[in-house]
């Protein structure tokens, strides 16, 4: 592109026009001080980016200016945010430093720009873990200042709007990333308009043909929709006017992305998607009468159109945790069509469109934290887990973003919001970490339910706690929220580390009796000998009895055979990995368990997808060959799941040294008072032994009992049997 004097002049005129537009469209009232700061930021940005141009050929400064316009009007943030948006690329791409910005604009602007700079653009050759690491950096800045994330969302929106000049592979990558994290983030911040636009633009680049097809069909049916809204309005406006309401009725077409999602989920065509648009009634009201007027409008609408009773959503009495408030009803409208009607006050409408900023505009004088603040505080502890890898971190974070919500009650009648699909365990951790960690059971609406029970809106949940209760690996199958899962993982890790400390002491004693010192060299040899990953793995497995006395003696014997060792070392040098002394216990995903009870069953791997340990898998019961294990994304999986759902068995990989094995113990003896208590107390005292079932009978003073226990290995079972034999009154203890 040739930069002629005329072109430069035209560009400068356009720049001035866009700058004036920025001041004009700002949602918040700008004081003279604000305007001065924005002007200064604009001048610095113009100077900093003067020699830069975008892929499309236009001057780079138009990008920060457009981002500032989105921040000012679409999101409605303050002057500090507008200035930060103008400066968001200055530190990363130009000679200006953070110190320069702090000196010119103060600490807040500098902090926000610093947050935005840390979220550096993702390089195209990065793999998933590095990409996730980058997202982690970004998500953690939420705790410093939510404005960082919001400006980042605006930046992403403008990039998506102006992506035409990019290569197709880059377009597809940026669009996928947007769907993966930015659209859910915009949703969580209550920025529904931006979320919708991000999703639609992503579809435009990931599936261009589908996007064009749906977009053209929406355009074709627009006239019909406008007429339908007009006719609908005609039916109810007399009744609304009679009540003296100040309102407007608008149509809201469903987004291209959500229509596409419906077509896929329900297997229907575009024409068969019945709710392609919603009708929105927005009324003016003061805060005191808002709720009353919403239900009055509801009453008028349902006088004229029959409502679907299962589709009433009252987010006025219980707002969503994103801050969203509205009354949604689905009614049988004209021409026998279901129509969603959304009833909102102008305040609720602003919050729905501007999210965070509008929330703060109306917050003055109200007590308590906003739902966004509360959410950020909750996230902080769930996400600042140093042990978590970046991919888990982002997956956990996503659990908190897009979930639909349910509302449940505490025993005292307080309302709690949880994601759809939550269990009593999630509820327990949302009350308090200590309640969660000591959960023994739960009652829902007065009835005892398992911890895996799925809660529904309106349930009243009571948690039964016990000092001796502690998390088990199975809890991770029951918990769905990021907070609960992070706390359970952390607790299991601590428990394993305690067991590893015991194991270290045991190992030291056992080696001492073999006259072998417990030093770094010996630990490296042991780790290598038992084919483990870390020293903590070694201590943990000694602690839980997987590596027993016999195995340690075998190690000592081969070690003391100097000739043998010499020959072995010549043939194969023990390869000690560099991170043997890493402070972690790794999972050897070497064993499969099936069903809700985690049973050990015989199986073979399917040849069509050849799973390897660690792959997400399921079991399929065949007629002749027993259980075949397939990967979840096996090409045959969809057909199997739809045609033979009853033959599918849940399967998961576990560490065989961590697995429980079920066995029966028969006890006989002389009956005496308190014998049953003594027996069960003895079993409970054994770490890593669970009682699955027990039955006792006494006849003529003779006691007989059968106990089903789950133990990790034979060594633990032997210790348990020996200890049971020592109980006064017990004559024989045998394993069935």
Automatic annotation (TrEMBL):
Q: Which GO terms describe its biological process?
A: guanosine tetraphosphate metabolic process
* PROSITE patterns given in the database record: TGS (PS51880)
Q: Kindly give the InterPro entries that the UniProt entry links to this protein.
A: ACT-like_dom_sf, ACT_dom, Beta-grasp_dom_sf, HD/PDEase_dom, NT_sf, RelA/Spo_fam, RelA/SpoT_AH_RIS, RelA_SpoT
CDD domains noted in UniProt: HDc (cd00077), NT_Rel-Spo_like (cd05399), TGS_RSH (cd01668)
Which SMART domains does this one have? HDc, RelA_SpoT
Record domain TGS: where: 404-465
Entries under Pfam families matching the protein: ACT_4 (PF13291), HD_4 (PF13328), RelA_AH_RIS (PF19296), RelA_SpoT (PF04607), TGS (PF02824)
GO CC annotation: plasma membrane
Q: What is the purpose of this protein? A: In eubacteria ppGpp (guanosine 3'-diphosphate 5'-diphosphate) is a mediator of the stringent response that coordinates a variety of cellular activities in response to changes in nutritional abundance.
Q: Which family does it belong to?
A: Belongs to the relA/spoT family.
What name has this protein been given in UniProt? MFS transporter
Which species is the source of this protein?
Dokdonia donghaensis DSW-1
* Highest classification ranks of the organism: Bacteria, Pseudomonadati, Bacteroidota, Flavobacteriia, Flavobacteriales
């Amino acid at each position: 592109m040739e930069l002629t004097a005329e072109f430069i002049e035209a560009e400068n005129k356009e720049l001035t026009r866009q700058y004036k537009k920025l001041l004009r469209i700002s949602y918040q009232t700008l004081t003279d001080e604000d305007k001065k700061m924005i002007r200064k930021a604009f001048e610095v940005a113009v100077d900093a980016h003067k020699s830069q141009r975008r892929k499309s050929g236009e001057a780079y400064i138009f990008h920060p200016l457009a981002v500032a316009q989105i921040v000012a009007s679409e999101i409605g943030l303050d002057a500090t945010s507008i200035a930060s948006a103008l400066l968001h690329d200055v530190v990363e791409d130009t000679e200006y430093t953070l110190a320069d910005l702090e000196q010119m604009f103060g600490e807040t602007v500098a902090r926000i720009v610093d947050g935005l700079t840390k979220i550096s653009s993702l390089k195209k050759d990065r793999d998933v873990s590095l990409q996730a690491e980058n997202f982690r950096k970004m998500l953690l800045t939420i705790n410093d200042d939510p404005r960082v994330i919001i400006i980042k969302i605006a930046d992403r929106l403008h990039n998506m709007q102006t992506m035409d000049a990019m290569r197709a592979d880059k377009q597809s990558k940026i669009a996928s990333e947007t769907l993966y994290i930015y659209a859910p983030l915009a949703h969580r911040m209550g920025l529904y308009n931006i979320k919708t636009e991000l999703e639609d633009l992503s579809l435009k680049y990931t599936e261009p043909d589908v996007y064009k097809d749906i977009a053209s069909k929406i355009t074709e049916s627009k006239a019909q929709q406008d007429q339908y809204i007009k006719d609908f309005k005609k039916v109810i406006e007399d009744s609304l006017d009679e009540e003296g309401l100040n309102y407007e009725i608008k149509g809201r077409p469903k987004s291209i992305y959500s229509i596409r999602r419906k077509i896929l989920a329900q297997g229907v065509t575009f024409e068969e998607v019945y709710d392609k648009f919603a009708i929105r009634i927005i009324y003016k009201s003061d805060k005191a009468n808002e709720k009353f007027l919403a239900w009055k409008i509801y009453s008028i609408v349902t006088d004229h159109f029959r409502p679907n009773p299962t589709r009433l959503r009252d987010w006025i009495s219980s707002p969503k945790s994103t801050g969203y408030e509205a009354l949604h009803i689905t009614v049988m409208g004209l021409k026998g069509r279901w129509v969603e009607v959304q009833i909102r006050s102008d305040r609720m409408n602003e919050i729905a469109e501007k999210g965070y900023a509008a929330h703060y505009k109306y917050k003055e004088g109200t007590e308590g934290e906003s739902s966004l603040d509360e959410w950020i505080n909750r996230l902080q502890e769930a996400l600042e887990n140093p042990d978590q890898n970046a991919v888990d971190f982002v997956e956990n974070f996503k659990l908190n973003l897009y979930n639909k919500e349910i509302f449940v009650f505490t025993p005292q009648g307080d309302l709690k919001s949880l994601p759809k699909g939550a269990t009593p365990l999630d509820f327990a951790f949302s009350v308090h970490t200590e309640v969660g960690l000591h959960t023994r059971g739960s009652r829902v609406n007065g009835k005892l339910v398992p911890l895996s029970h799925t809660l529904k809106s309106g349930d009243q949940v009571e948690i039964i706690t016990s000092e001796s209760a502690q998390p088990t690996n199975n809890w991770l199958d029951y918990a769905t929220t990021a907070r609960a899962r992070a706390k359970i993982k952390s607790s299991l890790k601590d428990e394993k580390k305690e067991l590893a400390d015991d194991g270290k002491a045991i190992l030291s004693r056992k080696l001492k009796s073999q006259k072998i010192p417990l030093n770094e060299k010996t630990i490296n040899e042991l780790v290598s000998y038992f084919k483990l990953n870390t020293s903590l793995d070694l201590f943990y497995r000694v602690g839980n009895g997987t590596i027993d006395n016999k195995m340690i003696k075998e190690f000592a014997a081969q070690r003391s055979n100097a000739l043998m060792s010499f020959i072995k070392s010549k043939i194969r040098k023990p390869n000690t990995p560099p991170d043997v002394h890493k402070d972690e216990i790794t999972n050897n995903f070497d064993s499969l368990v099936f069903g809700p009870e985690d049973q050990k069953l015989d199986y073979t791997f399917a040849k069509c997808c050849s799973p390897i340990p660690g792959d997400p898998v399921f079991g399929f019961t065949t007629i002749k060959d027993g259980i075949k294990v397939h990967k979840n994304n096996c090409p045959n999986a969809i057909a199997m799941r739809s045609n033979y759902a009853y033959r599918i068995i849940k399967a998961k990989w576990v560490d065989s040294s961590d697995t429980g094995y079920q066995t029966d113990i028969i006890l006989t003896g002389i009956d005496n008072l308190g014998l049953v208590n003594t027996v069960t107390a003895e079993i409970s005292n054994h770490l890593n032994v669970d009682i699955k079932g027990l039955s006792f009978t006494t006849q003529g003073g003779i006691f007989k009992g059968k106990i089903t226990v789950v133990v990790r290995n034979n060594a633990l079972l032997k210790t348990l049997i020996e200890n049971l034999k020592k109980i006064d009154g017990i004559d024989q203890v045998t394993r069935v």
